[in-house]
Fold each of these.
Amino acid sequence: MISLGQERLWFLQRLDPSDAAYRVAVVRRLRGTLDVEALTGAFADVVERHESLRTRFPDQDGLPVAVVDPPGPVPVELMAFERPAPEGPVLDQPVLDQPVLDEVARLLGERVNAPFDLASAPPLRITLVRLADDDHVLCVVLHHIIGDGWSLNVLMNDLAAFYLARTEGAPVSLPGLPVRYAEYADAQRLHDAGADIGYWTGRLAGATPLELPTDRPRPA
């Protein structure tokens, strides 16, 4: 079962799949040595922990349903833009040219704005750009149907914890999740089906029916 907010976002996505208004993204510049394999594994750990990040939304008889995929490897697109080899001492190594940074920004912009197919796969897109051995850019994009700005903060914090666990053997000190999003959606639906309908039925009891003008045909 999906929440009322997810159902609304699903409808808006079907109405205009090219609309980028409901895509949420974070881009981080990562300085220093990066273990790409550990980072990819850490993403898998985060997605296993948060089942919303592995949920897709096909339709069933014209209505959306939530399908949670099992944990597994998470696709991470890898791109590389190399600095030119230094000709002098390391301190004289040239920085990245602005055209290279502009091209990276353009490519990441394409990935942020690219539409999601909510039915076929969880709407999560990860790109890692290698600028040098000690310089990377990480771009994480998700559809608003599975997260928001606050969710991205949680995702990045959990990612850091799992990355440290994989690279330094540090224990993962993350609290257990008190509730699954599917449980929240179920509770919301039950509340709306009971209390809210009962409230408005009582409030509108005995109300005079609204008379709408029918002097000419109206559009659908």
Note: The chain has five helices and eight strands.
Amino acid sequence: MAFPSRTWLLSACLLAGFMSAPALADQPGKFDFYVLSLSWSPTYCKQEGDEANPHQCDVSDPYRFVVHGLWPQYEQGYPQSCPGMPQRIDRRIAVDMEDIMPSHSLVFYQWRKHGTCSGLDPEDYFSLTRQAFEKIAIPGVFEKLEKRGKAAPATVEKAFRLANPGLKEEGMAVTCDQGELEDVRICLTKDLAFRACPDVDRSGCRSSTLAVPPPAGR
């Protein structure tokens, strides 16, 4: 009767051990940097139409750039829905964030998916989100936009770099959806300093030009 070789037995044991080992879950606080995602609200309102959040898309008081989220990030990829953190947060937090995150459902969703990985409690996480938003100067052209415009993604990035000394081309990305400006994503250290993020930078919009819808009612 033939017996398996030592090499075969060793390989089989290693394979069995690998297959039985549980996958390491993302852990709160274990990440490299943040991405602040600023969403161009007029694009969301235009594309969602009647399905859009009515508060965010109120034509009498239209939003422009709003916070989509503050996302813990690895150098490649990102953690999400980290265990051991509360899934529900006080509605008061969403009310307090309305001026920069006008959708309550978005606030709750961002906490569950991203905030739970920050290692912070909900109040501190959203306080940090506000600090990150207030750090960024929005270029004047977007504050004054009253009619539909067009721009290359690189032009949008340049406008943000000029308005924010220290922000580099390799530290941000502009995303698009259906040929329209979607988000501006800016990479920040845990102390909210600008930093490079090649993986995020590579994920930017590849269109040569994109449309920039005006705020509703304009």
Note: The chain has a mean pLDDT of 90.
Amino acid sequence: MEENARPGPVRAALRFVRKAGVLLADYEYVLRHQLRANFERDPPEALVDEAGEGAPIVLLPGIYETWRFLHPLARRLHAAGHPVHVVTSLGHLGMSLAEAADQVEHYLREQHLSGVTIVAHSKGGLVARLLLGRPDASARIRRVVAIATPFSGSPLAVLVPFPAVRALRPGHPELVRLAADGADVGRVVSIWGWYDPHIPGGCALPGARNLRMPVGGHFRILGSPAVLALVDELTSG
């Protein structure tokens, strides 16, 4: 009986070690790319200029990320022929969802964009989701590809002493209103990993296409070859 009980604790220990490794790799990824972003000076216009005939893409970063954090993804999409638009007025995306959606909606109108695919990370996906509930903005959006987006919030948000992060907790009024706005989310593809240390409940969005990938992490998922190939596929169709 005692021998039969051993595999349980062993498996639990292995899962713990595996998740700890994912957490360390996740923070190594975010620190490395935040450092890189601080030294980059490429103008955002370069992602639109000399693009091919691909559909326009709007890139939305997550909280405390600027668009430069997603610059490697932006360059990949630009090289595939897409004009890639970034909304620099979002800054580090510490504003409310409504304020951020206002900024993106204004950009879409100002640039006369239509048939847009929004590729978003984390909180950026919530901003894109909010835009689907606004008639003018929604009419301009073809698809939303949301990577590691806490559509139902994250219970860990209450542990962070910053209002912008606490606003991502389950039950926050912004998330409650978002879930009840009745927007058609059939154009949303939600992608997340088998283990996200920041969103333990996963990123499934009822009514959307939900894809749980065999990669761990909240940030390093952005560099996963499998996820990048999937983004290529979703933005080319």
Note: The beta strands are 57-60, 84-86, 116-121, 141-147, 188-195, 209-216.
Amino acid sequence: MSKVVRVGVGVIIKRGNQILLGERIGAHGANTWATPGGHLEFGESIESCAAREVLEETGLTVEDVKQVGFTNDLFEREDKHYITIFVEARCDEGDAQILEPHKCKQWQWFTWDNLPQPLFIPMVNLIEANPTHFNAEI
């Protein structure tokens, strides 16, 4: 089987001065904190993927979805390679639910200056590539 590069979409959900992160379980990135997100499906727009993944994982509905950057992510231990497209979106109401308990332990809101550790590799790469944008964003 040939190796492939997968496309992921990460959704930075804003509410006031906070963003939503979940503690990952299982697949690559276990025990790290990440935004909601998932695989881009064939023929799907990035914005549609973002809204679908957030709804599937948290039960939340997002609005004002806009692309903010991408990362090139190598997961050496798992032998996986992703391009992760990040979007920002707003969600002003509702509580994040754990709708995929085999993938996520918990959802919590954090400010940029108080992010949990360790972060998911794509989040680390995004912040390292754009430190002033994401630290000043909120």
Note: The two ends are 43 Å apart (CA to CA).
